[in-house]
Amino acid sequence: VPINVGETILLRVINSALNQPLFFTVANHKFTVVGADASYLKPFTTNVIVLGPGQTTDALITGDQPPNRYYMAARAYQSAQNVPFGNTTTTAILQYKSAPCCIGGAKKGISIKPIMPLLPAYNDTNTVTRFIQSFKSLRKAEVPTELDENLFITIGLGLNNCPKNFRSRRCQGLNGTRFTASMNNVSFALPSNYSLLQAHHHSIHGVFTTDFPAKPPVKFDYTGSNISRSLYQPDRGTKLYKLKYGSRVQIVLQDTGIVTPENHPIHLHGYDFYI
């Protein structure tokens, strides 16, 4: 990424990993975070950005360091215990346009080694917490004071038996099982022939059901470690919960220790949350 001395550029950083939060930083530079997932934020300064899977963060970076080459680096944050993850570091380079290209001049051709940043430890939850707690809206939002619907949704991992036609590398859960995720002990099954919108607008039956539970099927110590194994294998289905247009909905999202505690980014397509 080229930059001039004194120039401020906007980085739109996207975590395109499947299931791994990431730390992202640039050596000797700070970010001013101004937005996340297409929503403006009250600007705040940080030297590390934390990105959930699929999350986008907009951050300003200023060329206020001596002209040189600086590594931009990212690596995993392991939020779940005893779950395999890629413990590698990926890099790119932030290069000042006025930086010398080589040691001893261009004729010798020995490239100057970029400066490497210090990344948080793979299990540095304190850094993650500080970053998340910095998210604030630009202005106070007026929220509904009366509710039409109240949903309580538990979120957790799960273990499904490995399908017979799957290779072992696709089933890296405990004892050769396959990791899955669930809400209220239901794991979403993607329709194979029609999209949900197609099925809804064209009244196509058999694609989904409208019996997604408004609360977990059983009460338990959600964050404890002594959880019944009966909850490890969730139901699988294409279940929806119907809401009336214009209804005021409160959603309580409760993480659980099913299999292991995990960091779960939540996105509701086309909407912003009032938190």
Automatic annotation (TrEMBL):
The keyword Repeat applies. Keywords: Apoplast, Copper, Glycoprotein, Lignin degradation, Metal-binding, Oxidoreductase, Repeat, Secreted. GO terms for molecular function: copper ion binding; hydroquinone:oxygen oxidoreductase activity. Residues 4-98, 211-275 form the Plastocyanin-like domain. One of its GO terms (biological process) is lignin catabolic process. One of its GO terms (cellular component) is apoplast. This is laccase. It comes from Brassica napus.
